[in-house]
Structures are given as structure tokens and as C-alpha cells.
Amino acid sequence: MKITLIRVTFYLLLFLFWYLFIKLGNIPSYILPAPIEVLSSFYYGFFKGSYCTAIFFSLVRVLIGYFLALGVGMITGILLARYYLLDITFGRTILALQSIPSVAWVPLALLWFGITDNAVVFIIILEAVLPVALSTKNAMKNIPPNLIRAAQTLGSKGLHLYRNVIIKAMIPELVTGLRLSWAFAWRALIAGELFISGSGIGQTLELGRSLADMSQVIAMITTIGVIGFLTENLFFGTIERRVRNAWGLEGR
Amino acid sequence: MIELQPKIKFENVSKSFFNTSKTETVLKDLNFSVFAEEFVCILGPSGSGKSTILGLIAGFIKPNSGLVLFNSKPIQRPNSSRTLVFQDYALFPWLNILDNVAFGLTTKNHSSKKSREVSLDYLNLVGLSAYKDYSVSQLSGGMKQRVAIARALAVEPEVLLLDEPFGALDQHTRESMQVEILRLWSKAKRTVLFVTHSVDEALKLGDRILVVGGKPGTILFDTTIAVSRPRDFKNPKLVTIRNQILEKLIQPDLFMGANI
Questions:
Q1: Minimal CB count within 10 Å: which of A23, A155, A228, B219?
Q2: Residue B224 to chain A, least CA–CA distance (Å)
Q3: What integer pLDDT is reported at residue B258 of this predicted model?
Q4: Are residues B222 and B163 in the same domain?
Q5: How far A202 CA sits from the closest chain B CA (Å)?
Q6: Domain annotation covers residue B194
Q7: Are A213 and A219 within 8 A, CB to CB?
Q8: How far is CA A152 from the centre of its chain?
């Protein structure tokens, strides 16, 4: 309760400081609009304009890319865990790929797919595949061998062993991979959307720039941050914490 | 006179492991038999191949030569007729205590009600039925090992294999667990093979002690302890056996890699 109060005060002071800075500094609104202008951009954007459709289409893109990435990533991870030769060759390459920011893939994607949704989905897959592949690989390699032996000695084998032990033992590490992957996908989505046509959060942001509508730009940046925070921290963070608790990995 | 069939029989068993650099022979020409309802302690220094013997019986490891027989048939793969209890418990952290005990039963075609009842019985047997809904991380080491033993017994194995089960426990817990395992064994008669590196633990528990040692490991000494339990270490028979075992274990050339 006390923390909530401190936080509310912090944001009120922030807005006050922002307001005073603009009033006293005589800042033009295409450089930095007043808080009220941003709020009205939110209001018109959501209730009369295209913000809702933009968010909808962005979410569709990111979900398509994300789930395709999960499929590809998990299969890659399993292959890397099983085949040593693949791991020391392709596995190394993946680590190098991970240090390339998603925006660096944009020119390549645009040349291959044009300024379409496919280009964005491609960039998302490239980015989101890596964390899932790596965490699947590690999750498989880190299963305590005695857990599998214990299961076998109790009569578990084949499908029963896979369903009740191997997959279960992998889950905590997999969930971490899923969260990381989502964070990557979300960043890649915005990077890609800046360059393509159609409706989306990135496009709306880019439109704001070309119309010198700084209120819209700030409104979209805020939207990206809020959705990212809610999904990454609240949704995935909660799942991760619950799984770690259920698996007895978190200190109580 | 009827000849007694051994429950487990090792016939000239040798086992080597292949590393990248060299081949290490862990066991060489092992011959011994274990009979039904015997409590056999396998005693030896670390690295003597004690755990490998259990792995061979459990079916995780195959011998390079020789035969490991269970009820006169060669052992092919792990099976719930021979369950293994580990030093690190190896409980499934995502299952609660009762479901851990019931795990082996889920591989059989029992109804879930039946396996629940059976699991509760075994949890009761180790005195932990009050903890059935707890998670694994809430239990102490000694309690975890009791759950692991209950889990291994719940599938009603013919042979119970214990690989230094009390090695990670403190002295006090260890002693109470030794009493506990004897109580369980007298209630649910099974063939037990108990690996330990503690001479006193072996003397306290076993009907018979197999001393394993040397490089590669062989059976140095095989003795039956005809002393009733609970045992008093001052008993002259135990003192004699203890001295014989120690004599075998501290022969210096055993640890220098020389064959005997």
C-alpha cells in the first residue's frame, strides 16, 4: 500500500516536471508535447482512431512469428542436444547469430519478402528462435540422469518416461526460454514494422514521425512499453515464478 | 534335498568403461550369488565398483563379459522387479510426496484409486502419511530418503537395491535410518543389496558382507554374519569379522593398482 502511494507520487511529480519543463522552456510541441496532448492523442487514437486495429494487427503478427519460432526452436534444440556434431558446428553459429540485433535483418527481409507482413514474421522468427533453441537444448542436457534412472527402475519406459519425466524435468528451463523468446519477438516486431506498410504499432509510430505528430510518437512508444511490460513481466514472469515454485527451485 | 535357486547370480562378470583416452576395467571376473530374502551389504572403498554392481543388477549397465542372472535369466533392461534407491534420493520435484510414491504404480494398469491406497500404505509404513501433500523441497534429507524407499517398495520389487542410501545424511539421522531399514526389511521381506563404504554400517545391517576392492574390483571377502539384531559391536564374532574386513581393506597394494 505504502509502495503504491510512493509510486503514484513519483508519476504525478514526473508529469508535473514534464509540464513545467514545457511551459517554462517554451518547447514546441513537435519536439516535446505537453502531457495533456499525449493523453488526448491516446484518447482520440483509441476511441476514434486506429490505435486498436494497429495493436490487433501487431499482436497477430507477433503471435504468428512467435509460435512458428517455438516450433522451429524446439526442434532445433532437440537436434542440438542429440547430435554432438551439429552442436559444435551449427550450435556455435547460433550463438553468433544471437549477437545480431533484429533491425540488422530488416534490409535482407525487405529484399526477400518486400514491404509485407512476411518480412516482419521472418525477422521475428529469426530473433525468437534462438532463445528457445538454446533453452530446449540446455533443458534436455541438464535433466538429472538419476531422475531418469529412478523412473526406469520403477518400470517407466518409452512414452510414459517421456511424458512423465523427461518433459516434466525440462519445463522450468523451457519456460525461461519461452519468456526470453517472447521478449525478443516483441522487439523484432517493432523493428520490422517501422519499414513495412499496413496497420500496426510500428507503422503508426512511423506515421507519427512523418506527420511530425510527436504526441502520436510518444503514445505509441508508451503503448509498446506497456504491452511489453504486461506480457513479459506479468504474464510470463508469473508463469515462470509459479513453475519454479512448483518444481521446488525457488527458496521459500 | 531341493537345491535353492539364487535370486541373483554373477557369473564371471567383467565390466570396463571406455573413456576418450583409456579403457578402465572396473570389475573383473565377479562370481557370487544372492539368495531370496538375504540382506547383503556390499562394502568397499570409493571407486571399487560397488555402484557398478548395482547398476548391472538394476539393468542400466551391461557386462562386457559374463552373465548377470536374475531368477536364472539374464538381465536385459531396468524393471520394477529390481528397484534402485539413490544416495541423492532422485525424487520427482514436480510431484507431491504421495504422487512420488505412486509413480511406479502409474506405469502399471492400476486404477488411480487403487494406486493411491497402495501408496498411502507404503507412506504409512515409513511413517510419513501426514506429509502426503507436501512438496519434495519441504522435506528433510532423512524424510526424502524414506519417501524414496517407500516409492521403491510400492512397486513390490523382488530385489531392493540401495546405493549408499544414507551417505548424505548426518550421523544421527543415519543411525535412525539404519534401524528403519531393518524394520522395513523385517516387515516386507525382500532381497536387499545395500552398498556402503562404512564397515560399521555393513556390520550393523547385513546377513552377509561382500567386500569389494582392488583395481580392477573383485570380491576380496565374502562372509556371513550369524549374529542376531540389534547387534552389539562388542560381540566377539563381530569383532573378529570386523578385523578380517579391515585387514582386507588396508592391504596397501590394493590401492596401488596392482593385481592380487
A1: A23
A2: 28
A3: 44
A4: yes
A5: 41
A6: yes
A7: no
A8: 38
Quick one: B16 and B36 in the same domain? Answer: yes
The correct CATH number of A36-246 out of 3.90.76.10, 1.10.3720.10, 1.20.1530.20, 1.20.1250.20 is 1.10.3720.10
- Best to test chain A binding among B92, B136, B160 (most A CBs inside 10 Å): B92
Residue B88 inside a domain? The answer is no
Inside any domain, residue B258 = no
Q: pLDDT tens digit string along B208-235?
A: 999 998 888 889 899 999 888 888 888 8
In a domain, B143, yes or no: yes
Contact (CB, 8 A) for A66 and A179: no
Q: CA A155, B61, B95: angle at the middle one, nearest 5? A: 35
Tell me the per-residue pLDDT of A67-123, one tens digit each, with 9 for 90 and over: 999 999 999 999 999 999 998 998 888 888 888 888 999 999 999 999 999 999 999
| CA–CA distance, B81 with B71 (Å, rounded to integer) | 11
**Domain with B129 in it:** 94-156
Binning chain A into helix, strand and coil, the percentages to the nearest 5 are 85, 0, 15
**Same domain assignment for residues B207 and B107:** no
List Cβ<8 Å contacts ≥24 apart for A44-49.
Answer: A45/A204, A45/A216, A45/A219
Residues B58 and B169 in one domain: yes
- As a whole number of Å, the end-to-end CA separation of chain B is 37
Q: Does B105 lie in the same domain as B67? A: no
Measure A77 CA to nearest chain B CA, in Å: 23
Across the interface, do A150 and B84 touch by the CB < 8 Å criterion?
Answer: yes
Measured between its terminal Cα atoms, the distance across chain A in Å is 23
Given an 8 Å threshold on Cβ–Cβ distance, is B84 in contact with A153? yes
Q: What is the pLDDT of residue B23?
A: 86
Based on the domain organization, do B225 and B179 belong to the same domain?
yes
Residue B259 has pLDDT above 70, yes or no: no
Q: Write the DSSP string, B142-191.
A: HHHHHHHHHHHHHT--SEEEEESTTTTS-HHHHHHHHHHHHHHHHHS--E
Q: What is residue B260's predicted lDDT score, i.e. its pLDDT?
A: 41
* Complex-level ipTM: 0.88
B94: contact with A, CB 8 A cutoff: yes
Same-domain pairing of B68 and B131: no
- Tens-digit pLDDT profile for residues A13-65: 999 999 999 989 888 988 999 999 999 999 999 998 899 999 999 999 999 99
**Could you give the 3-state DSSP secondary structure of residue B195?**
strand
Question: Of B31, B86, B41, B92, which is closest to residue B63 (Cα–Cα)?
Answer: B31
Same domain, B174 and B220: yes
The answer to whether the Cβ–Cβ distance between A155 and B104 falls below 8 Å is yes
CATH of the domain at B166: 3.40.50.300
What are the structural domain ranges in chain A? 1-32, 36-246
Interface subset of B 137-196, CB within 8 angstroms of A: 137-138, 148, 151-152, 155, 161
Q: How many domains does chain B contain in total? A: 2
